[in-house]
Amino acid sequence: MRLGVTGTPGTGKTTATDLVESDLDVVHLNEMVREEGLYTEVDEERDSVVADLEAVATRLEGRDDVILESHLAHHLDLDAVVVLRCEPTELEGRLRDRGASAAKAEENAESEALDVILSEAVDRHGRNSVYEIDTTDRPPAAVAEEIEAVIAGELEPSAGTVDFTDYL
């Protein structure tokens, strides 16, 4: 199985996937992109890099028993996608606690409220391959258990079940 765990920055992807107990290897794509130079440019203003998704896909060829973790994971070929979600006000707080600027935290919170990553995941993979998990008031271990349930085939796809539009 090739599973993507994606979501807006701050939803808990890295923390949860580090706790998943599975035979699947976890690949933290953002780390891999930076460490292996799989990017096309550096955005100094945003303190980020622009990933070269073709290079990432090439690097991952033949890796099938894997969890790909990143806010970009849903742009790759996957068997299933887990989209972690978080209430936008909570998300803003998490990002500010991590040192994000007010503008960057607000931008990500608005993206979360607008379902940007969920929409992209459904557009690329179809509603029947996408699972949503609301991480707002859940401990990371509980989120990891739900990811494990997706891997085990114990859950039905759930795209469109989380709604944060009231934030807007």
From TrEMBL:
Residues 97-107 are annotated as: LID. InterPro entries: Adenyl_kinase_AK6 (IPR020618), P-loop_NTPase (IPR027417). ATP binds at residues 10, 12-15, 98. GO terms for molecular function: AMP kinase activity; ATP binding; ATP hydrolysis activity. Keywords: ATP-binding, Kinase, Nucleotide-binding, Ribosome biogenesis, rRNA processing, Transferase. It holds the Pfam family AAA_18. GO terms for biological process: ribosomal small subunit biogenesis; rRNA processing. Broad-specificity nucleoside monophosphate (NMP) kinase that catalyzes the reversible transfer of the terminal phosphate group between nucleoside triphosphates and monophosphates. Has also ATPase activity. Involved in the late maturation steps of the 30S ribosomal particles, specifically 16S rRNA maturation. While NMP activity is not required for ribosome maturation, ATPase activity is. Associates transiently with small ribosomal subunit protein uS11. ATP hydrolysis breaks the interaction with uS11. This is Putative adenylate kinase. It comes from Halanaeroarchaeum sulfurireducens.
